[in-house]
Fold each of these.
Amino acid sequence: MVEGSKSSITDKLINNQVSNRKIIHIDMDAFFASVEQRDFSELQGKPVIVGGPPHSRGVVAACSYEARKFGIHSAMPSSHAYRLCPDAIFVTPRFEAYREASAIIREIFYSYTTLVEPPSLDEAYLDVSHCSKHNGSATLIAKAIKTKIQQHTGLTASAGISYNKFLAKIASDINKPNGFYLITPEQGKTFIENLPIRKFHGIGKATETKMAKLGIHNGKDLKKVSLQCLKENFGKAGLYYYHIAQGIDPRPVKTNRPKKSIGIETTFQQDLSGSAVILKQLQILLKNALEKTAAKRLSPRTLTIKIKYQNFQQITRSRTLTSPIQHGKAANYLLKELITTTDVNHRKVRLLGVTLSSLEKHSNYHQLDLFDSIS
């Protein structure tokens, strides 16, 4: 189980990263909730929950730090959040306001580097290895970015700096909110060895439990495990874990992340029943998803529907076509085919979702009306 001495190849990879890269990870603090508190002074200092109403099947999209003190977190059912904090203020998400703030923040990023990778509205990786501002100091650049974000948006951000994306991401979460943390190349090895496995970005509860059974509780333990053992237990992810334990993360900051899929789903206030009703709702979701792909000049060939029944059992049905999914009648027929293999005529449904994938760039893509065949 124990790996032998570190190879010269590993040493070379680490040295290349250490000498060349300066990565900043910027993470906005309680972004959605902070925008609400900024725009509505009566919410400042209060436990704010952005998401579904308290007596609904909605979930928490985001919450303020005042709400987090009660154990509330994103993706938690709104009803549970209400039980934890009955005095919490629930607000409906205003995504246009969040996008507007995010656009301003990204312009600040681009004033320092073109190498910006925003995985979501509220975070981004920046490669400032070749930025000449502030004498090329990643520390001073990150501090300047934090200051400009607060000046231009009234919001705070936390920043993590290191020589790779993994460590920069971990660092940005250490001193939240309004945090700042630097992990230098000299500190990287010791930092990773002392890092609890649950703190490793990309390792969830299930993987943490599996690693614990193998005697892996921190980075030092992980570093002792052979590559073969990690591959046997974690498949392709084993190589990633092996490299991370050595401080190796060569992933570049991607300026154009390819969109793998576009999906939309909704949870209904009352359970739905009957294939006709289900079909109608799926058509609406598909229409919205197709509009999103068209706006991005993408053409999908794979359609996946998700159905969650009344008892929370969830199923998916998928079909890949040889040509893009874009014609109304064809898409409608495809949906009908997919739901015939489900129990929607016999069981009530609480959630429906549609995902489009196998996306390709298509400059002449034209979205036809999905509902041209529906009376």
Amino acid sequence: MWITVGIAIGCLVVGFLLSGLLKKIKEGKKRRRARSEADRILSKAKNDAKQAERKARDLEKSIKRNAEKEIQRLKENLQKQERSLKDKERSLEQSYKSKERKIEDKERILKDEVEKISIVERRLEDQEKAMKEKMEELTSKLQHTSGLTKDEAKREIVEAVRSEAEHEAAKAALVIENEAKEDAEKKAKKIISLAMSRYAGEYTAERTTSVIELPNEEMKGRIIGREGRNIRAMETACGVDLIVDDTPELVVISGFDPVRREVARRALEKLMEDGRVHPARIEEVVDKIKSELFKSIKDDGDKACFELGIQGVDAEIVKLIGSLKYRTSYTQNNYVHSKEVGYL
């Protein structure tokens, strides 16, 4: 029994000692783990600190580099501005000197001109004095030799000069008359040739026709219409002749009145743009074009009168002035020519 109690007590002591030893071993492991964790954290902190320090140094270097670049850029800009200002200053100085030289040259030229004018004036005065002295000398000689008074001598001189001038004029007139007779045939031929060229057939055809280009041959068929009804309606409405021959994609408007030709030309262009070509549409378009054209003609007439400063002109005359824009003579527009004559 006592042996059992002793064994039990021994087991308890051994268990107690073992539990204490295990506890110490666990605490040692915990301390080692804690120390290892602390070392790891410390090492990480040191690495982070080194990286932060490295980043800070890199950032500092980058900031310094950027600052140096910015300072260098500002210095270069300042230098450029200084050079530009110096160039402008030199340019202004040169321009000023050049203007001064030009002014001095002009002043010298003016002085020379003034001196020349004064010299000419002195010469004229001297010549006038010499002429007066000569006239007085001649008058006195004439009086002395002929026994005439001063007024009588002047009349004699005037009569002599007049008779001599009349004789010279008669000779000049005779020369001019002979030259005119010699050139008469040449001038007559020139006038006839001009008249022939003015009324030549080609010229007349050119000035009495207008040509319209068609987009295609189909449009020519639309303009002619069934049995030619569209072309007849156009000729009746505009008072012109429409010539549609074998020439591809062309219609010729013929008429001596340029205003009617212009109405027909605009109406054809409007109809081609619209695409609808029939007698009712033709009459509608022609009436609209006429009203627009006549308004434009009146505006052109009013504009010409305003530019020439003419007021109170009759409305019909204003329309006639505006219609000159569509007339030509010797290849010149009558509207422009009339305004030029009005300015003169």
